[in-house]
Design a protein that fits this description.
The longest helix has 17 residues, at about 45-60. The chain has helices at about 30-35, 45-60, 80-90, 100-105, 125-130, 145-150, 195-200, 225-240, 265-275, 290, 325-330; strands at about 5, 15-20, 20-25, 25-30, 40-45, 70-75, 95, 115-120, 135-140, 155-160, 205-210, 245, 280-285, 295-310, 310-315, 335, 345-350, 360-365, 375-380, 400-404. The chain has eleven helices and 20 strands. By secondary structure, it is of the alpha/beta class. Helix 9 (about 265-275) links the parallel strand 12 (about 245) and strand 13 (about 280-285).
Length: about 400
């Protein structure tokens, strides 16, 4: 099936065309290409803060004034200038999922008390490292973690990450779900919960938080499912009398295609209000994708344009190893030419320079005429791209820039 970009559904005030030139963060992308070459990621700092402010506004409008925290999920993008910038805004703290992320966040200006930690399959070395940071709040993902934290830090306040056996994700993509019908490694199930409470009591650990993260990329049409997930999690909350807050995880999504409806933050926050406003419980959220995915682009250069059989392949100077989501999760990163050349559009398949069959950026898309040395950007490349990159085929080189 052919995808057309004629509608330019992705355009907005900080990402648009002026005449035939693409503009991002008030910079002509052709100028960025001339200055910095490719492959290169560019992130719009103001777009990130705009989205953070939108979350604050929605939560305050729903009635959560002073009763919430926003932790940026730094696994989405750990670029040090971005983290340092986020610290200076004062708009969020940090969600970390490894001891390395904890230390990186601290190196970028966040205090240990600014960090909420959640992860699975922790080694004793991981736990020893975490125990040194008394002010980092740890959400225990398993009985194993509760036991070892109890041995290392008896009397500490902890959170428990639970698994409600129900999940959601962008486009009902099973690969993006953290819980559901199939057993997953994430969180403590209902049939283990009594054991978790007993372990906490044994080591004099006080359970102050219930945490759950059930999937990634949900949009407005999935808010009813989101409502049902929270309802399922209330059972766990009701079993513990010492809870001060509930961390509902991240997973807020952004549109990837012209058929996607952007997440309605007012409806989203109304779901939270329905479940929590009448309780003496604060809420916490961990957006990553939502804040940085559509705040970033990946600039590429066309290496070749060649027809093979019935398919015209446009080859570019970077592959799936520096932005894994299209290949691994099937998430479309729409290609947009930097300069629109006159002429009849053609249907092409955009491919990278890695010697692997899955190195395809986009199948069968209608684009204006392209030739060698033209530039293309992939939109929605601000999250889970550079942070997941590898040096496969020794082609892991790229640059990153934070734009203001």
């Amino acid at each position: 099936m052919m995808t057309s970009v004629n509608a330019d559904w992705w355009q907005r005030k900080d990402l648009n065309r002026v005449d035939n030139q693409l503009v991002f963060a008030a910079r002509p992308v052709s100028e960025l290409a001339a200055q910095f070459d490719s492959p290169a990621f560019f992130y719009n700092a103001h777009r990130v803060t705009e989205k953070l402010n939108g979350l604050h506004s929605a939560l305050n409008t729903a009635g959560f004034n002073g009763r919430y925290k926003i932790h940026y999920a730094m696994k989405a993008n750990r670029f040090a200038p971005l983290l340092t910038y986020l610290k200076t805004t004062g708009l969020c703290s940090i969600d970390a999922c490894s001891p390395g992320e904890v230390e990186h966040a601290i190196s970028c200006g966040f205090a240990p008390a600014d960090i909420s930690f959640t992860n699975t399959s922790l080694s004793r070395r991981d736990l020893l490292q975490l125990a040194r940071y008394k002010d980092v709040f740890i959400n225990c993902d398993s009985l194993h973690t509760i036991r070892h934290i109890g041995e290392l830090c008896p009397g500490r306040d902890i959170g428990i990450r639970i698994n409600p056996e129900i999940g959601l994700g962008y486009g009902e993509n099973e690969k993006l779900r953290y819980s559901g019908n199939a057993s997953t490694k994430f969180g403590i199930y209902r049939d283990q919960f009594d054991d978790a409470l007993a372990l906490a009591k044994q080591y004099k650990l006080t359970i102050r938080k219930i945490h759950f993260h059930t999937g990634c990329g949900y949009l407005t049409e999935q808010l009813d499912a989101w409502d049902a997930i929270i309802a399922e999690c209330m059972w766990f909350i009701d079993q513990v009398g010492t809870i001060r807050s509930v961390n509902v995880g991240g997973g807020l999504g952004v549109p990837h295609t012209h058929t996607d409806e952007a997440l309605d933050l007012n409806r989203w926050s109304a779901v939270l209000a329905k479940h929590f406003l009448h309780r003496e419980i604060n809420i916490e959220i961990e957006p990553g994708d939502y804040l940085v995915k559509d705040s970033g682009i990946l600039l590429l250069t066309v290496n070749s344009v060649e027809k093979k059989k019935s398919t015209t392949f446009v080859g570019v100077d970077a592959g799936f190893n520096i932005a894994l989501e299209p290949a691994v999760y099937g998430l479309p990163f729409l290609p947009v030419p930097v300069t629109t050349r006159k002429g009849e559009s053609q249907t092409v398949t955009l491919v990278g320079n890695i010697n692997e069959a899955l190195d395809v950026w986009y199948h069968n898309i209608s684009l204006p005429p392209l030739q060698e040395d033209d530039h293309i950007v992939l939109i929605n490349a601000g999250a889970y791209s550079s942070s997941m990159a590898s040096n496969h085929c020794m082609r892991g080189q790229f640059k990153e820039f934070l734009l203001f």
